[in-house]
Amino acid sequence: MRRSRLIILVVAMVFSFIGLVILQIRYITTNAKIIEEQFNENVQYSLSQTVSLIEENEALEFLSQSLEKEDYSPDKKILAFMYPEGYKPPQNIDTNSITANTARPTIRLSTGHGKATIEETSRYLQELFQENFSRRKTILDQAVFRWLRQSEERPVEQRIDFEDVENILNTLFENKGITQPYYVYVVGKSGNMIYKSEDAQPISYNKAKNATFKQQFFPLENAKNPVFLKVIFPEKQNFILKSMNLLLPSIGLMLLILIIFIATIIIILRQKQLEIMKTDFVNNMTHELKTPISSISLAAQMLRDSSVCKSPEMMKHISTVIGDETKRLGFQVDKVLQMAMFEKENSTLTLTELSINELITDIINNFSLKVNSKGGQILPKLDAKNDIAIVDELHFTNIIYNLMDNALKYCSEKPLLLTVATRNEKDKICIEIEDNGIGIKKEDQRRIFDKFFRVSTGNTHDIKGFGLGLAYVKKMVQEHHGTIKVESGLGLGTKFIITIPIISSE
Among 17-21, 254-258, 322-326, whose mean pLDDT is lowest? Predict the structure, then answer.
């Protein structure tokens, strides 16, 4: 994939995800706003109804006391409405008959009033009804005027039954489906506390800021010191969040899309980098294979010359070149085979019990010729007492050899000092290979075990390789159920630590 196409794809994915997030946020905020507005409307309606019912109760109570002369018996109530104020009915009146007659009225035409015709009788009855209605209305008006005059002078505690307030509120809230806990307060104009519910607790300003609702008692009165009903819902915010539980799957889906998006970008970038590394690998491999092939081809042409065949020294030189280049070509083929091995999930190992100290000693003896030829030195510190492990001799030898060869490749101008040590750690053996070379930068240390990755060496290009050595080492260590880690600093040398299980001595 071209770089420009990759950039376009990434930008398109970013903008698509941002647009999706914006739409989701707008949907969530709009839904939360609707839920909050509906909650506020239901609460405010309940408060308004409570205040109205409290006001109606006060009016009915006052009127009943005024019209019934503070006697609340049913018979007296009927008499109070039948006779004008100040009129005393006879003591021997049968109230039961009045009640019965009132409950079952009868219609009959009487001539006792001196009216001879139906039309005159009807007119007379209408005038009588209007007169009675006016008298009753006058009585009610006088009672209402007394109530208005006296109510403003009465204290709030006498006008409002706080227990009724809580009962009415609770009933109205239940009818509206409001089941959240709340605290009830009755406060004055200046905020002075007149009443609060028993379970009321102190609430922080942030919680009470958007969860407080107020409604004035007796709003139609022009009171100098108005009284307010205040209700606080301490769990209002939690209620709104719980009401949006259905949105949680969409939020989870958004997070999943984000994770997939990031993973896709990472995979694309890694594949792009791997493609570049493979291209470099093929180019380097082609160059490395052409060199020994050219040398062998040239040697073959020289062998065709009869004069060369007559010189034993020349024949020996040509045979040496052919042998060295053949080994070099075989080494490059081994690198290609190592690359193919990475495509397999599991490698086939031939496991045997070996002494790790003896194996490392043999490797040091063979490798010391290369190190000594460059003025270097190998310092063995094989201190592990229990060094018997089950390993594949060939692959484990390649592990140690590759690490020592890297130390030789990346040494600085100063002579190489290579330390190879072993030690026991519980039921494992640790193998440490430390050099005094150029070291590895921090940003490169996390990638040195990746396929085809090569540590940057500045402008120098004299270090040959394909970036497969350390990747092979890590894979083989893992196949032996071990671990490998690196400790290094630029200009401070490098230490590789390999840990593999051993056979218990018990």
Answer: 322-326
Averaged pLDDT, 393-418: 83
Nearest to 390, CA basis, from 355, 427, 362, 366: 355
Residue pointed to by tokens 């409002």: 160
224 and 76 within one domain:
yes
Structural domain harbouring 438: 351-501
3-class state of residue 353 by DSSP: strand
Query: How far apart, in whole angstroms, are the C-alpha atoms of residue 310 and residue 253?
Result: 82
Total Cβ atoms within 10 A of residue 437? 22
Beta strands 494-501 and 483-488 are: antiparallel
* 34 located within any domain: no
The reply to whether 369 and 307 lie within a common domain is: no
Answer whether 353's CB lies under 8 Å from 387's CB. Answer: no
How many whole angstroms separate alpha carbon 229 and alpha carbon 51?
8
Number of domains the chain contains: 3
Give the whole-angstrom CA distance, residue 325 versus residue 256: 55
- What amino acid occupies position 68? E
Tokens standing for 44?
């405010």
Radius of gyration of the chain (CA): 51
Q: pTM of the entire structure?
A: 0.45
